[in-house]
Design a protein that fits this description.
TIM Barrel, 10 strands, 15% strand, Delta-lactam-biosynthetic de-N-acetylase
């Protein structure tokens, strides 16, 4: 089931999962892939994201890009990625798990020291739709504490749900806990370390799907991504794109955000 979920997410096919213990439907983040250089239509998901102040793209029409990386374990390429980001003066957000923080404290510290944002991907990477609000809070707070112990970032306000699984209940609960959900509008199958296809493949996948306001999801375990990143940044800058952080996206958002439990 987990493999099916992961594949479905990245090829942008929406699916539904029945949760037997509370009969609440769960959704795997997905949408129809397009190459017309416009944000993909996410259908009824848009209403849920608007209701709970979540993001999948910057819909202002501005020619900006937000780079995000998911880090569950280290394969030796994150340092190279950070080198490129530093050279090109490009900000990024790294969504990390407890396993990653425990194993790679120096990389977490480097991310923060070099001006990047560390995002919350939960401590143990569970399916949020199958656990209680209290358990979700424990997962998020444990990860936040772990990051604070090895870096100067004391709070994590951006959340990417494990496996991209969510429902209205998990959106509501995490909003009440003060987190902002961040999904994505551009991704591809890049996490299979034994099936890398060369940096040109990663480059083409991004360039074919790029659009103004894209929140790009990449995985740092991909050698293709590490090798393609500088080429991508250089080409996208030539095309007039700017790279900004998620903080910039939230600041520019003039729509009042919902506040729960305060």
């Amino acid at each position: 089931m987990q493999k099916f979920i992961a594949v479905s997410i990245i090829v942008f096919l929406a699916f539904f999962i029945g949760v037997e213990n509370n009969q609440v439907l769960a959704y795997g983040w997905g949408y129809k892939k397009n190459t017309d250089h416009k944000p993909p239509d996410i259908g009824e998901y848009q209403g849920l994201l608007d209701k709970y102040g979540a993001y999948y793209a910057d819909l202002s029409g501005d020619k900006v890009i937000y780079l995000t990386f998911d880090n569950g374990y280290e394969a030796g390429y994150t340092g190279d990625i950070l080198d490129v980001l530093e050279k090109e003066k490009v900000p990024a957000t790294f969504f990390v798990t407890g396993h990653y923080v425990d194993r790679e404290p120096e990389l977490i510290k480097r991310m923060v020291d070099e001006g990047h944002i560390v995002g919350n991907h939960s401590y143990h990477h569970p399916d949020f739709s199958t656990i209680s609000k209290g358990s979700i809070q424990e997962e998020l707070e444990a990860l936040e504490q772990a990051v604070a112990e090895v870096s100067d970032q004391e709070q994590l306000k951006y959340l990417r749900p494990p496996r991209g699984i969510f429902n209205e209940q998990t959106l509501k609960w995490t909003s009440e806990l003060g987190y902002i959900h961040v999904f994505w509008s551009l991704a591809f199958v890049d996490w299979e370390t034994s099936k890398q296809k060369g940096w040109e493949y990663a480059f083409d996948q991004v360039m074919n799907q790029i659009h103004p306001g894209a929140i790009v999801l990449l995985h740092t375990v991909s050698s293709d991504n590490a090798e393609a990143l500088e080429h991508l940044i250089t080409e996208l800058k030539k095309e007039g794109y700017e790279f900004k952080s998620l903080d910039d996206l939230v600041i520019k958002d003039e729509i009042p955000r919902p506040i729960y439990g305060f």
